[in-house]
User: What shape does this take?
Amino acid sequence: MSRIAFFPGTFDPPTLGHINVIERSSRLFEKLYVVVAHNINKSCLFTPEERVEMMKESVCHLDNVFVESFSGLSVDYAKKRDCSVMIRGVRSESDFSYEFEIAMTNKLLYPDLEVIFLPTDQNYIILRSSQIKEMVAFGANISKMVPLPVMKYLKMKYPGAH
Assistant: This one.
């Protein structure tokens, strides 16, 4: 049985909620890949390379976590890396409903893939990347919502960010 999992997401930008799920998942698996996805349905503020760098800097304290970029279906990434488990972070019932439907579709495409839904800690339940981008654009203090390395990148996009 493989002890390799992956956590795909757009991570535009990574939040402390994402890091919470990654840290907790890293304790459950021998190896965890964080997969920065190229989502054709989303318009991203940061390039895939910037998102990979932000994530690498944010999880560098975790020896068994590896960050990569991938364009394609999550199940294809799982097959490529011999991952048997996909981690999905959920904050609410609506997140779970959405993620459950995607998990069932992925199961049709790759029956050997298991999906684990990991709720974020309560402190991070309200964090959404889209809201963070909006708040920082209007000058809100988001320092308690994103990892320190992410603040550096946000300040490049929004010089008034704090």
Observations:
- The chain has six helices and five strands.
- Helices lie at 16-26, 48-58, 74-81, 93-109, 129-137, 148-157.
